[in-house]
Write a structure and sequence with these properties.
Blueprint (H helix, E strand, L loop, with lengths): L3 E8 L9 E8 L2 E9 L4 H16 L5 H11 L6 E9 L4 E7 L3 E5 L23 E4 L5 E5 L19 H12 L6 E8 L2
Antiparallel strand pairs: 1-9, 2-3, 3-4, 4-5, 5-7, 6-8, 8-9
Helix pairs in contact: 1-2
Length: 193
Amino acid sequence: MRWVRLGVVSRPIKSSETNGDAYLFVEWKRQTLMAVIDGLGHGGEAYIASQKAREYMEDHASEDLEEIIRGCDRHIRKTRGVAIGLVRIDRNTSRFSCCGVGNVETRILNKRSRHPISTAGIVGYNVRKIRRFDYPYDPVGVVIIHSDGVSGRFDPSKYPHLRRDPQRAAEQIIDQWGKETDDATILIAVETR
């Protein structure tokens, strides 16, 4: 059973066919794990780093968020590294949890909108500090995660169809706020129950 309506756009820098960004979306046992991964720089080496990070996170999706990031940090050590924004919705414990390292931005829109801050660093280059944010679960919430290839200046309230058509909203945000000088990824997840 799918618990969210999903909108995702991920595209490479204008001068390349290889995308150094990646995303992850996994659902199991009333839980959802989602992430945006931004390989440092762009091109082939960024692609390798983001894909290795994505594969690791998918294989370890049920672990605590901090452990996923620490394990990923060790697993991709021989790559150029990544920035990660990671969110878990756990409907069993009625919690949203999120953490990020580097310049991937996360927003949670519900009764009380939140904008948790990622810690500085590079996953794959000895991450030292990981900060997890926990919030009460809101079944009508929206999660937006995007790489730094999307300007954080966009206002979600300017996309009135965001909740009913997150794919259209993601496409419009990338078109209007995506940077031509970087890979760009946005993931929008809207609770359906």
